[in-house]
Amino acid sequence: MPSSCAPTRTQSLTLTVNAGTTNNADFVIDISNPSLTVGPSESAVFNGTLKASGGYSSAVTLACAGSLPLSCAPSPATLTPTPAGAAFTVTATSDVQKTYDFNIVATGADAGHTTHSAAVELIVGFNFALNNNSDGQTIAAGQTASYNLDAVPLGNGSTFPSNLSLSCATSGMPALSTCSFTPSQVSAGSGDTNVRLNIVTTATSGVTARLTGMPDQLWYGLGFPLVGLVLALGGLKKPRSRTRLATLFVILIMLTGGFVACGGGGSSGGGNGVGGAGHPGTAPGNYTITVNGVVGSVTRSTQVVLTVQ
Fold it and tell me: Which domains does the chain possess?
């Protein structure tokens, strides 16, 4: 029989292609902030994601490797990558001023233990604290209040890399008062240093003496003879007698001027013959004074409380 007359049979087959069944299943690790700078013992938080590709669905374990800081902790420690990106954080800290270059390593639980890593940098810079170890002080105007401060470079074995400058903020200082520090600054290379702060107030200054500083009795003692001379001159008729009395009158005036000049020299203030009003001194009240410490670009502050009565 010719082949063209052979019977024909047909069979339908079904093929299903599932996503992710290829050998290209994988994931990538990404860190959005790979370099961070903090002070000693401050926490640095790196933010990362695990993105799946090719249908990768195995759990991935995170770890830190390399020249590690004192503490390095991923959270969560294990997670499954997603196409959109599964988020995680790594918190690192150290009490030593240093730059740490290390890796965040992600290892999959798949048969091939797929592993990827991302390089990060942690810079631990200088930091310090300025503390007030004294309670609030209560003084009278004209007295001095003293406080014990503590300047502490933070970090294991840390010292001040440059001089620590100290000052009181003018906005909180009471009028007619000054502040000073002992020592006036903390030198570079110093460690934990105690500093004494003195706030000097001003007492009330009383009203200065009267016009000449002379007692009222002296004015009365000079005033009555002057009046008597005037009356006497008016009652005399002889020119010669009047001339003599007039001479005495002039002498008395000159003596009076001398008393005034001597009295005026004892006045406080400007010495211009008119007594000043003095000043009220440091005003009574409650004051919160801010003390600032500056080392390079780092500024730290503390506050002291003062009551002036």
Answer: 26-124 (2.60.40.2310), 128-205+280-308 (2.60.40.10)
